[in-house]
Amino acid sequence: MATKFVTNLDLNQNQLLNGRFESLASDPGTGNFEGRLIYNSTEKVLKVYTGSAWRKALHAAASTTNALVVTESNGTVTFSIADSVASGNSGLLSGADKQKLDDATSTNTNSTVAMRDGSGRIQVSAPAADLDAANKSYVDAARSGLDVKASVRAATTAALTLISDLENGDTLDGVTLATGDRVLVKNQGTGAENGIYIVAASGAPSRSTDADSNSEVTPGMFTFVEEGTTNADSGWVMTNDGAITVGTTALVFALFSVAGTIFAGDGLSKTGDVLNVNVKSDGAVIITSDELEVELDPAVAGLATTASGLAIKSDIAGTGISYTAGVLTSDAADLAAGAVDGGVTGTLVIAQGGTNATTEAAARDNLAATSAAGLTVSTPTTARVASQTVGDASATSFALVHNFSTRAVVVQVYDAATYDTVIADVVRTSASTVTVDFSTAPASGAYVVVITG
Hints:
By secondary structure, the chain is mainly beta.
């Protein structure tokens, strides 16, 4: 059963959530009126009644260019391309040009259109000719004297079996490797095996293409490690001097940089690479045998350090409480003597959490009088009810007199024929009158208004 509204519904700029249109399998032929909305579940489309016919919600479409013609018929939109062949003024792209746009990227990829990334940057390869664009790595290397290579995902911490330990799925310094990952091998017993490698799906890795020839592996070769339990965010430089033959010369790598700088915070001081703890002379903390400990005053009895922390002796006891072997225990007999059962007289005001009454009935009345939020609540009494049938096929507003001498009344309206509750506009005009309004004049005796107060 649906609730009937007999007045307009003003949502006061609020949202209508989780709602849906009236769903019908076909357009209704009766009971229609201009502006009526339905969802045609057969055609899967919203429709509106114009006063003479049902129309799909979309009833017009147009184009602002001659290259595209748009037509519409009862909600069906048709697009026609006027010139599907690229020409000087058609405004259309050829298939090849469209593919170039689709392939646009911010990475340094050959023969593609450059597109800025979310930070407004693009990538370019290292320059070779005088007029080539220079990337940041090239500029940084030129400034620092380093031969900078692309970063690696992980780096070794110990020697490994090169032909089998750098396969897809293997773990290196806490990093699970994937095919194509760049890794720095720097701890081999045979130094000639060190270098930058590419992880293979299976079997031995291959040296990366930017560090696999003698001209590419030069003194000062540098790479940055992205991940790893030990090597994350660290930079490594090759310290070899002179000519290098890849695969023959033992390559040696040294730590060049580590992300972050250590500063001495509160309570610490730093001398070079050494951090020291600043111990206050009378701060009750001392360093003994390279360990911090709490300094105890031997003149104060009852203090001691244990494996669990600082122990403080307590043997305070009093009425109803006894102390034995470090345990405080309550004496039930002594505590019972102070019980508050039946020993309270007088009244406690409501402001202090009481009822300001000496009987249960009076307490209930007092607590019902007001609330902390200022809500007025009357003492329960028998409800008064007034009802009247309204509707004359002419008037839309009805003033009903109840003479309850209060605006604190509840008003309900129901259909006199079906007894369904309906929603109408209700105004508490005065302490003795309410006014009920309808958007259209109800038929004679159509509704019953019930006033309770």
